Amino acid sequence: MDESLLSMMEVREDLMVSPIGDSEPALRSAYFLKPIAKSLDGPVSKVLSSSMTMSLPPVFEPKDWPLVIHFDWWRHTKKKWVEWVDALQLRYKSVWKKVGIFEAIMSTKCSIAKDQNLCFGIAEKWCAETNTLLFPWGKATITLEDVMVLGGYPVVGDPVFAPLQSHEMREAEKKLILAREQHFKAMK
User: Has this prediction a pTM greater than 0.90?
Assistant: First the structure.
């Protein structure tokens, strides 16, 4: 494994079982981003210990909050966008797969329904001090693995602005730039 990854991740092997419990335990490698808690028996942070004793409100009533929040940024996928992606997919699917962006592009066609109460409920648990959600049972957050699994995005590799190394990748970049230019010319 790359040295830079080892400094930010810890790899441990342990017995794991399927979440639905239909298999025998198997020895697997697990990857954890540092820093991680070593033990639940050891000292617990001040923020976490206060979250252990917090009581949940008996009824979730966001309408009674003094704050009014609007989700103006919540957008739905446009029909024209989906049509354009579908049209380009016929021609550029293999290129997108080679450069590792096919799943990300396909995910832009999805429309995620807004559940305002769910957004409020999650925001209510957010702790800016630790960048985590505080629950009565402990802290939780969205991990890079969650982003990878849910969005189909790679979480390892070179930065987006790193120069392309191979001739094949530079050719793929040229094709993608050409497709973008053709799209904008067609829009005029």
Answer: no
